[in-house]
Write a structure and sequence with these properties.
Strand order of the largest sheet: 2-3-4-1-7-8-9
Number of strands: 25
Distance between the termini: 61 Å
Number of helices: 22
Strand content: 15-25%
CATH topology of the largest domain: Topoisomerase I, domain 2
Helix content: 25-40%
Radius of gyration: 31 Å
Largest sheet: 7 strands, mixed
CATH superfamily of the largest domain: Topoisomerase I, domain 2
CATH architecture of the largest domain: Orthogonal Bundle
Number of domains: 5
Length: 725
């Protein structure tokens, strides 16, 4: 009788599987019993490559060799893990191995790791799929009693290969084309482009453009203090006739007054005058948040603890694999299977000894675990369900692991509790025809907020003094508060993850965000790596919790927008590719159809880059308000420079990783100096500020002052240097 070879994604998982199955003897690189051989990869063992006969030997960074689209791809072993590949190859070739079981992570990437191994080794044995949601021994044994067929897994396999090939075609050709374009005037200026990376960058750049263009506006608010029979209470003036209508002005609010004279007139009109009060109280409910998928967990962990998306994924993976206290984390689902009601009850019973006893006992005693489409819904699940605790008691968790475990466990408990109930009071005080609003919110029944205790204590508004309906009150004081509008905030990882999930649209409503997630940028498993990639490529700097795009980022998005490569600058269009991959996973779209579109997109990107010179790229460019200091001619902005139209005078737009604004260049030309300007970066990546001076030779040079010159620091001259990207 033959044996089944089980291939896990990493050695630790292979060990867990061997332990769960039992009866295993450990060899050097695998485990073996009478029925099974268990071994593993160490992540990706192979990478996509071009077959020798189709590889571009010389001139790969030139337009003549683009687009580069081999009719087929090869797989090359990754050098650092080649020994592991040889172990698997040897096991696959064994004569007693008559079945291969794919036990790699249950998702698109795990499928790709396994399929690449099978393709490279030319394995001919029948294939079965182990699909795990949890790493407890019982869950592993249960998974082996429900192995999936190879036919069932073919759509996911196709989607995994298409994702890999599409990223290669767009990434390699896009990067080579943009690098060739930026290197036309000399030098080599690597400009990386990615199918998902670049649209994500476009989101961050668009927000930064809004911040830079933002013009603050003054406005005023009136805050009154009113004396009723039973005490004083505050109220804020608002315009009862206010409607936003079709206005695109996002700053309009009912309580804002845009003219100081009008605000002062209302204040004078109402001070010391009596007012009439009307009040309405309505019950209000608040449902518990949905269970976590990976993206919502990363978002909350970043907002609450400052964890990066990458760190949260690593912690969740450890809690799943190593500690076995959470279910599979790389999921995009926020619901549980409909047949999971009894499993949840067992999980709650298991959690009774972990400090959550009171909550677990109450949920079970009240019978709150019952069929409910918001929690148990097969239509909301693809390959994996939401992240929940397994019921196994956590031991020896690090502080960050404990924080993340508590986040998931409290969310799991809260979803079974009833809604929180509030009494919301809206009070209107009218003085001389002007309305002042007072709002109060009192927690009546905590419901799910009970799980969070003091964490949720901010839900109540301050208690307001009671009044009788139509009571006459006295206006004791009115304070005129001056404010200024603020620009939109920069993205944090939490808000960028939300934007990626909604393909650039920031969606606050959890149910709507859930519905849009199929058209998001990337997948829950890849979004952290995309953000980290943008940071390592110097397109984004992480400053505390803010993500700030660099001059290199602006330059790339300006270039792509000017070329009209909308697929890489419009996130919603790239979100559609992700949707098509999801369709493929479900068997609703053929691989050939998807790849045909990707090849057409690749040809379009390269074709557009070939059409322009660096100074002919269309864009939102203007002319400077100051004349050329050399000849008096007009100075126009283009993609890379501020260039005189009559002579050779030009100033590069980027120096030391910072892009000059037109107004700064105007100051430099007019006053022969500008600054000190913030935001420059040294070659080592450290930020610095400097004065910039225009020399008699009409060159822009940094001036660090006499102190640094005395210390031997030379001036840095960036004149004539090309920007990276």
């Amino acid at each position: 009788m033959g044996k089944a070879l089980i291939i896990a994604e990493k050695p630790s998982v292979a060990g867990d599987i061997a332990k769960a199955l039992g009866g295993m003897k450990r060899e050097k690189d695998y485990f073996e019993s009478e029925d099974f051989v268990v071994s593993s990869a160490v992540g990706h063992l192979l990478e996509l490559a071009v077959p020798e006969e189709y590889e571009v030997k010389r001139g790969k960074w030139s337009f003549e060799k683009l687009p580069h689209m081999p009719p087929r791809f090869a797989l090359n072993p990754i050098a650092k893990s080649e020994s592991r590949l040889k172990v698997l190859q040897k096991l696959i070739k064994r004569k007693d191995v008559d079945t291969i079981i794919n036990a790699c992570d249950a998702g698109r990437e795990g499928e790709l790791i396994f399929r690449n191994i099978i393709a490279h080794t030319s394995a001919k044995q029948p294939i079965k799929r182990l699909w795990l949601q949890s790493m407890t021994p019982a869950a592993i044994r249960d998974g082996f009693s429900h192995l999936r067929s190879d036919t069932e897994m073919r759509p996911l396999a196709d989607a995994s290969v298409c994702r890999s090939e599409a990223d290669w075609l767009v990434g390699i050709n896009g990067t080579r084309a943009m690098t060739a374009f930026n290197s036309k005037t000399g030098g080599f200026h690597l400009t990386t482009v990615g199918r998902v990376q670049t649209p994500t960058l476009a989101i961050v750049v668009e927000r930064e453009q809004l911040i830079r263009k933002f013009v603050p506006r003054d406005y005023w608010e009136l805050h009154g203090t009113f004396a009723a029979a039973k005490g004083e209470y505050p109220g804020r003036w608002f315009d009862e006739k206010f409607t936003k209508g079709d206005s695109k002005d996002n700053e309009l609010r009912a309580e804002r007054i845009w003219e100081k004279d009008r605000a002062e007139a209302i204040k004078a009109k109402c001070e010391g005058k009596p007012g009439i009060v009307t009040e309405e109280s309505k019950p209000s409910t608040s449902m518990s948040p949905l269970l976590y998928d990976l993206t919502s967990l990363q978002r909350d962990a970043n907002g609450r603890f400052g964890f990066s998306a990458k760190n949260t994924l690593g912690l969740a993976q450890a809690l799943y694999e190593k500690h076995k206290v959470l279910t599979y984390p790389r999921t995009d689902a926020r619901a549980l299977p409909e047949d999971y009601v009894n499993t949840v009850k067992q999980t709650l019973q298991s959690l009774s000894g972990t400090g959550y006893d009171g909550f677990c006992d109450k949920i079970l005693k009240e019978g709150w675990v019952r069929p409910n489409k918001r929690i148990f819904n097969n239509a909301k699940i693809s390959d994996h369900f939401a992240i929940i605790p397994t019921g196994q008691a956590p031991k020896n968790l690090s502080e960050p692991e404990q924080k993340l475990y508590e986040l998931v466990t409290k969310r799991f408990l809260a979803i079974f509790y009833p809604a929180a109930e509030f009494l919301v009071t809206t009070r209107i005080t009218r003085v001389e025809g002007e309305a002042f609003k007072t709002e109060g919110k009192v927690l009546v029944k905590p419901g799910w907020l009970e799980v969070y205790g003091k964490e949720a204590a901010t839900e109540d508004s301050p208690t307001i003094a009671p009044v009788d309906q139509n009571e006459t009150v006295q206006t004791k004081a009115i304070e005129l508060k001056e404010n200024v509008t603020k620009p939109p905030p920069r993205y944090s990882e939490a808000t960028l993850l939300s934007a990626m999930e909604g393909a650039g649209k920031l969606v606050d409503d959890e149910e709507l965000r859930d519905a849009m997630s199929e058209r998001g940028l990337g997948t829950p498993a890849t979004r952290a790596a995309i953000i980290e990639g943008l940071i390592s490529e110097q397109y984004i700097h992480r400053e505390h919790r803010e993500l700030k795009p660099t001059a290199k980022a602006f330059s790339l998005i300006t270039l792509l927008s000017g070329l009209g490569v909308e697929t890489l600058t419009k996130p919603e269009m790239t979100g559609n590719w992700e949707y098509q991959l999801k369709q493929m996973e479900r068997g609703d779209l053929h691989r050939e159809e998807f790849m045909k579109e990707i090849r057409e997109l690749t040809e379009d990107i390269v074709g557009r880059a070939k059409q322009y010179e660096h100074d002919t790229i269309p864009g939102d460019f203007g002319k400077l308000a100051v004349p050329c200091p050399k000849c008096g001619g007009e100075i126009h902005e283009n993609y890379k420079k501020f260039q005189c139209q009559k002579c050779d005078f030009a100033l590069w737009k980027i120096a030391a990783g910072r892009q000059y604004e037109p107004a700064e260049i105007e100051s430099l030309i007019r006053d022969k100096q500008v600054g000190p300007l913030q935001g420059f970066r040294s070659k080592q990546g450290f930020p610095f500020a400097a004065m910039v001076k225009l020399t008699p030779e009409f060159e822009a040079k940094f001036d660090f002052g006499d102190d640094q010159k005395e210390n031997g620091d030379a001036e840095v001259d960036f004149t004539g240097k090309e920007p990276l990207g």
